[in-house]
Amino acid sequence: MDKRKNYGNVGGRRKGYGRGHLRRSGRLSLEGRVRYEKGHLFEVVVAKFFEYKGYEVKKNERFRGASGAVHEIDIALYKGGKLVGVVEAKNYDKPVPKEWVMKIHNVGGDVGASEYYVVSATGFTEDAIKVARVMGVQLLSLDDLAREVERFEGLSKLPLYHLRPLFKPSTAVEYASRHVRKKLFKTMEEPGDVDLVYAPFYLLEAEYSYVEKHGILFTREYEVRKRVKLLASAVSQSLLVCYEDRCELVELPNLTEEEAELLKIMMDIGDEITYSELEEETGWNRSKLYRLVNSLVDKGLVEAGEDEGRKIFTPIFPLLDDFADTVGKLVEENDLEEGPPAEAKVLEAKYPVSNIKALVKRILDVDVKDVKLVYLPIYRVKMESTEDETYRYLCLLAIVEDTPIEPCME
Predict the structure, then answer these.
(1) What are phi and psi of 303, to 5 degrees?
(2) Per the CB 3.0–4.6 Å rule, which of 48, 242, 287, 308 could disulfide with 326?
(3) How far apart are CA 266 and CA 293, in angstroms?
(4) Total number of domains constituting the chain
(5) Positive or negative: CA dihedral 193, 196, 201, 203
């Protein structure tokens, strides 16, 4: 007989002595009532979060574990009617210590759960983080909850599409064989297993404006508004750009307003830019430019060099037209099929579209007007070493011929 029974409210506190009775009878102090209400509201928010995640949720349940002990669990998580997870929700004024992490792990194991969570309104102590990592307990903050809810709500409102592979797995192996590593004309690896995965991308339709001048003697300026389409990964916070022989996921870095402004100026100027040119273009002093340019170099957006003893800089972040041309090569509206893909593995979108839109605005100075979620098919080919047991994965974009995509989608 399974001793891990759900006891509900039976066998709990003696009648008349529960927190609810004390609150209703006025025997709790004002401070106690406020603390109780805040704790109750916090549990409601946490419960709603796990409902967003697809769990069936029950609050403040009592279980008898395999040990025979009875445990009260803040939030119990079910799937298909079966208990799968336990949650400890702590609305403390200080970071949650390791004792609560250890407790939820032990209680979860006793009642037969396989997932353990601690949610804190004020973070966790360093020891709690270390213990959680070892015990497999997931720690969540209010910021984590907010990001996840924003992501789910944003995704639920987006129209979904997908593209089918252009070629078969056997062709993917053939393409992969052209990209094996070699040393002194000797093949160092060979392609093995092939998996088809669908990676989520935001298809962004964005708008920007620029000024055109017309006339020779008497010129007039006209503001022109133009629309472009971009593909942003929903997995790695990056934009997709494709060239003739490869595609790359270019990271969208977190830039300050001044860094973003300087990067845009440098991209407008072009190659081999000097500090003197930047001083003239921006009006900023040399020390400020040193700091901002070095930051852009550190973030991999600008390359530094020398020419006749002068420091020169070249922006290496792709141009807006490069990203727009990629969509023209890969995605035509009449190729899109409605709905998510029904077969193969589908990667989960991790980054809220609001984050992507904000980064695109800051870095490329475009306003996103429309968004679709598009799943692109990718073949992951296992490239096995011929000398030892090591291997790597090569990703091929399955909607264009013989085109690797880097880094490989995980």
Answers:
(1) -105, 140
(2) 242
(3) 10
(4) 2
(5) positive
